[in-house]
Amino acid sequence: MSSPATIKVCTPKSLPGTDLFAAAKTAVEINPANRPYVRPVTALLPAGTVTKEFISAMTTKYWKSGGVHLAVHFLDTDAADLKARIISHMNAWSPGANIKFSESRSNDAEVRIARTPGDGYWSYLGTDILHIAADQPTMNLDSFSMDTDESEYKRVVRHETGHTLGFPHEHLRREVVENIDPKKAIRYFLEADGWSAATTKAQVLTPLEDSSLIATPTDTVSIMCYQLPGSIMRDGRPVPGGLDIDDQDRKFAQTLYPAKLVTTTHPVAKVAAHAH
Fold first, then answer.
1. pTM (2 decimals)?
2. Which N-terminal stretch is annotated as signal sequence (predicted)?
3. What DSSP letter does each residue of the chain carry, written as one string?
4. Distance CA 152, CA 105 (A)
């Protein structure tokens, strides 16, 4: 397995604060199960803490529970072989699940892919992509080409597609985060990736709210999990991370979007895509 220091990691994009509540509303309209169950959490918080922003942050961004079919538009290439290769890896999530990505030449496509050099690997999370202006990317695959190694297609394209399907980073589970030494992590990611302390806190040291998670065991070899070196872990044991979709990833996708049900592209997509 490659060293984490040699691997360019994903930095998921977040919507501006002004769009968070509208995006949360969209997520709940598409899939009511996205609505956060906050009563046990809010009972312990000071009065006035439960704001629209608080609720929005705890809203999951999964698509319709029956399945998800999304159109994919490429913003900076007409190369048929490259587009087909990327989409084939996006559809690696499809076996046993009602998940399908298909190429579109229209900016109205829900998923819009750029390959902007230097902009890193990222995707907006799940239904949040419907709140991105139609001429802007919802995913970036920094400098991907037909010369990019197949292992990177598996690691990066499938990971970013997981975000598009609504899957957050697995290493942000509370039990993983609480085992990270913050000072060592900040120093490590500054040296390895040039991240500021604020970026490391957001991407590695801020755990997901338990109430926003579907009850599944923590999977440290998930495609959605960063590799973390033992040098930054309190117990000295590295988090292996995932280089491809594993069995637990696949079972989760199949449970969330079961293949036996049929669905169509979400009717709100075209309206929401022009929200800006």
1. 0.84
2. none
3. ---GGGSPPB------GGGHHHHHHHHHHH-GGGS---HHHHTTSPTT---HHHHHHT------TT-EEEEEEESS---HHHHHHHHHHHGGG-TTBSEEEEE-SSTT-SEEEE--TTS-EEE--GGGGGGS-TTS-SEEETT--TTS-HHHIIIIIHHHHHHHTT---GGGSHHHHTTB-HHHHHHHHHHHH---HHHHHHHTSSPPPGGGS-S----TTSTTS--B-GGGBTTSPPB---SS--HHHHHHHHHHSBTTS-----TTHHHHHT--
4. 25
CB atoms within 10 A of CB 69: 18
The confidence score (pLDDT) of residue 194 equals 86
Residue 217 is predicted with a pLDDT of 80
Contact 180, 232 (CB under 8 A): yes
Domains and CATH numbers, the chain: 4-273 (3.40.390.10)
